[in-house]
Amino acid sequence: MDTLSLLAFLPGMHLLVYALPLITVVSLVYGATRHEQWPAIKKHAWDTFIWIVGFMGVVFVVILLAGLWL
Questions:
Q1: In 10 A of CB 26, how many CB atoms?
Q2: 30: number of Cβ within 10 Å
Q3: Which of 31, 53, 58, 67 could share a disulfide with 44, CB 3.0–4.6 Å?
Q4: Largest CA distance in the chain
Q5: Which of 61, 62, 35 is nearest to 27 (CA)?
Q6: What is the DSSP letter of 11?
Q7: Phi, psi of 37 (to 5 degrees)
Q8: DSSP string, 22-52
Q9: 33 with 47: CB under 8 angstroms?
Q10: Could you tell me the keywords of this UniProt record (predicted)?
Q11: Cα separation, 13 vs 46, whole angstroms
Q12: What does each of the 70 residues of the chain score in pLDDT, given as a tens digit?
């Protein structure tokens, strides 16, 4: 499949290039506000990253199903 046809099929997919670094930075800053040692910051940041991505995935599925249902 051609890149242009993939972008036409999934019009907002290029925005993930911005979402993943933003989620990473937000997770690191949030972890750094809670802890002072790097191992604890990285663990908390990873947990927060997974939580945010999971929440965004659930919201995506709900919106996708609502769009298909209507």
A1: 14
A2: 16
A3: 31
A4: 49
A5: 35
A6: T
A7: -95, 140
A8: HHHHHHHHHHHHH-SSHHHHHHHHHHHHHHH
A9: no
A10: Membrane, Transmembrane, Transmembrane helix
A11: 23
A12: 556 665 566 667 777 778 899 999 999 999 999 999 999 999 999 999 999 999 999 998 999 899 888 7
